[in-house]
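Example record for the data management plan.
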Amino acid sequence: MKATFKHSLALFFCLALILSGGLAYVAATLSGERSVADLGPAQLHAAEEEGGERKVKYWAAPMDPTYIRNEPGKSPMGMDLIPVYEDEVSGGATISIDPVTSQNMGVRTDLVTRADISRQISTVGLVGYEEPTQYSINAKVAGWVEKLYVNETGQQVKKGQKLLEIYSPELVSAQEELLLAKNTLVAVSRSSFPQIVESGRRLLEASRKRLKLWDVSDEQIRKIEETGQVQKRLTLYSLYDGIVSMKMVNEGMHITPGLPLLEISDISRVWVYADIYEYELPWIKVGQQATIYLPYADSKPLTAKVDYLYPYVEAKTRTVKARLVFDNPEFELRPDMYVNVRLQAEAVTDVLVIPVEAILYSGEKQTVFVALGEGKFEPRVIKSGLQDGTGRVQVLQGLQEGDKVVISAQFMLDSESKLREAIQKMLEIDQEDSDAGSADDLFGDE
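Corresponding structural encoding:
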């Protein structure tokens, strides 16, 4: 009997506890006292608005930020829409990122400063001949090359040195005419008629001039007149110093007037053609100091100045040639040799500069992100200028000294900024449509 009474008493206490818990839950429900964990996004928004803390701009899907609504609801994936507050949406494309997210993204900034920038351009140069000191030796009469004194390409030639001997029927006839004119002048020199003597002199001068025009030297003409004998072969002499850069003639070869025989080039001065890319052209000026280094070891640097910038771009290399002039008395620089060229540009002083990695290039626009503080970033279109060799670029428009620009993770900022800008435009269009609809209701026909 006692055991039954104890069991009945325990059961009574359990039912009392269950009933008191249920009444407490009902009371809490009726009085609005619920746990924060039990509230959804819409209830949280209502609670915050009652507290007067933040105001919602629009509602967006958690997995698709382009799906936005003016009121709470469900996304196409069945998830609750989350609120986007007005203090998170700035005007235009400015975005806000909390410090933790910014740190996880690896966002780094740098200051816009004033500095002097310069650039040293290192490029490749090709040694070439000095064009005004290249000479072509060609035949002015038809004949045969019976003796060739200069018979090797690269052979050094001095002014007045024998080049070749030519047999030409035309030269033989011209010599005979010279001797005949001289004998005629001697015969008529005692004539009492001055006109006849003068004609004899003019005939002799014409014969001499004809031989000179065929590159017969004064010494050879004098020898013909003194000996009174016609020479079968006449020698051509070099009029220039240099080396034989091209040889197009051999002994026994028949030659015709205008045929190139030899090319002589003076390499005591040479040109070096340095390749300059198009983006480097603003740094290059005529008269600028240049240094070249030969490709072999223990070579001493040679200095010169930029003599000329060619007014066209090479189609194959997309470079502009800068011409450097070098004295080459010991023939250290050889045509068609490659050399290393360094050009030191003059410094541009007191300009605004930023790191080049801060710039986003998109077509014709150049964009940077400026850190406004408190986690806000603003995209800004700028205009850049010269870029130095240390990774800094000149800013011509769009920034001021002391601005902070983002130098890493700006691609993610750019994506987010464009997304926010697109959403803002969509909201503006919806607002315009709403205003237009209100106006139609106000002034519509009754």
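Summary line stored alongside the record: The chain has three domains: 95-117+349-435, 120-130+266-347, 137-264.
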